[in-house]
Amino acid sequence: MAEISRATLRRYPVYLKALRKLSQNGVKVIRSNELSQYVDIKATTIRHDFSLIGQLGKQGYGYDIEELIRIFAEALGEDYDEEMILIGVGRLGKAILNYNNWNHVAGEIVCAFDLKPEVRNQETQVNVPVYHISQLKEKFPKGCEIAILCIPSGAQEIVNELHELGVKGIVNFTREHFVLPEGMIKSDVDVVSTIEELLFEVNSMNK
Amino acid sequence: MAEISRATLRRYPVYLKALRKLSQNGVKVIRSNELSQYVDIKATTIRHDFSLIGQLGKQGYGYDIEELIRIFAEALGEDYDEEMILIGVGRLGKAILNYNNWNHVAGEIVCAFDLKPEVRNQETQVNVPVYHISQLKEKFPKGCEIAILCIPSGAQEIVNELHELGVKGIVNFTREHFVLPEGMIKSDVDVVSTIEELLFEVNSMNK
DNA sequence: ATCTATTTGTGAATAATTTATTAATCTTCA
DNA sequence: TGAAGATTAATAAATTATTCACAAATAGAT
User: Fold this and answer.
1) Where in chain B is the domain with CATH 1.10.10.10?
2) Which CATH superfamily is domain B79-193 in?
3) β-bridge mates for residue B84, sequence order
């Protein structure tokens, strides 16, 4: 597999989301042109992105949606049920836990860590155990590579610990600044920053 | 002001966040090199990005943090309290409403819309009125340009309506697909996609 | 079975973005 | 006050990403 650029990697989830939606609607086959309209990405870019994974389509025909989803899901991780952990079970953390919609879509949260595990265990309505943060090393699921960070402070220390435990990717909900250890990647989910970005753009539109 | 690229626009919130943090810690002046280490963006890129807004720094000295924050905040919007609305006051919508931390940081949510306004008004602990979605046109705050979308379905219709009302930017929390009307921009805040993106990357790291 | 309409896949060309370099400007300290 | 050292701003080079153009392949019609 050729080196896939970050830009392309970022588009794959967009394709996958669209394909799942189309599949739900009973669409079986799609041309790059149609998908282009749907996701607002140039058809040539789509074909280029797809071609990096392999020969996914048939000339003169298009792409088989089920097949495509299967291939993407495979590229996403073994059996697409990557094990993830959640750190911090506050308001947002709970919302994430309760929102179980991504089971078998983008992995599964197998356990969570918090400073008040007893309280949190009662509060959450799902069957995901919450352990005390001090038990991180002890209860850490073997082979887990993704951690979702929802803590208000102390991110750096946790991140360092996670790095040592072999975590490669952080889904970062905190607004705290931390230095990312070598070899780790993160994706920020930051409402404030998102809004700010949008404001910058909207304002530069106005000029 | 020269045309600022999308890539640069996306970095501004990162700078702003870092600058605020530094300011809190009592730092008054920063060199592009120091900021570079802090945010993990090359110093040359930072200087380039900054120079697009104006001559923000002093040679041989660095950047004055307070000044920088002021300039950024100004670029962000008048008096940095842009008015925003929230559509959909479910679990996530409520979390966003309650999380009032961004007042005077990235604008303010002035009102919200939902299918069950009475219930929602009781549930939320903040002083933001929730109106019925059918009252969107009626209660829409004049001049509002940003809408936060937290509804489980029916996004397209709402988006079209918002477009007519003059909304320019959508902060999109829905997983629903919708076509963005001409002249509108959106930013997706999608945990599943974020995790998927991370998985794609982590998996391509493993190879 | 053959021909024609389509549509993908590929590699090259173009465009955009990031990084490096150079020149100019500022601060500081003697 | 002036020179040394530091740092930005502007420009050039390198890298990365997107788009284009066309060959190769397929489905479907006749």
Assistant:
1) 6-75
2) NAD(P)-binding Rossmann-like Domain (3.40.50.720)
3) B109, B146
Which residue in this structure is represented by tokens 């029916």?
Answer: B154
Q: Which amino acid is at A9?
A: L
On chain D, which bases lie within 7 A of the protein's CB atoms?
5-11, 16-21, 23-27
Q: What is the pTM of this model?
A: 0.84
Using one digit for the tens of pLDDT, what is the confidence trace for A71-84?
A: 988 887 655 567 89
Strand partners, A86: A112, A148
**Contacts (Cβ under 8 Å, ≥6 apart) of B46:** B15, B32, B35, B36, B39
Nearest CA-CA distance, residue A146 and chain B, Å: 8
Q: How is domain A6-74 classified at the architecture level of CATH?
A: Orthogonal Bundle (1.10)
Phi/psi of residue A116, nearest 5 degrees: -120, 70
Specify the 3-state DSSP secondary structure of B173. Answer: coil
Strand partners, A84: A109, A146
Summarised one tens digit per residue, pLDDT across range A39-71 is 999 999 999 999 999 999 999 999 999 999 999
CB A198 within 8 A of CB B169: yes
Q: At what angle do helices B191-205 and A65-76 cross, to 10 degrees?
A: 70
Covered bases, chain C (protein CB within 7 Å): 5-12, 16-21, 24-28
Give how far Cα A187 sits from Cα of A173, A190, B149, B197, Å.
Answer: 9, 9, 21, 8
Identity of the amino acid at A95: A
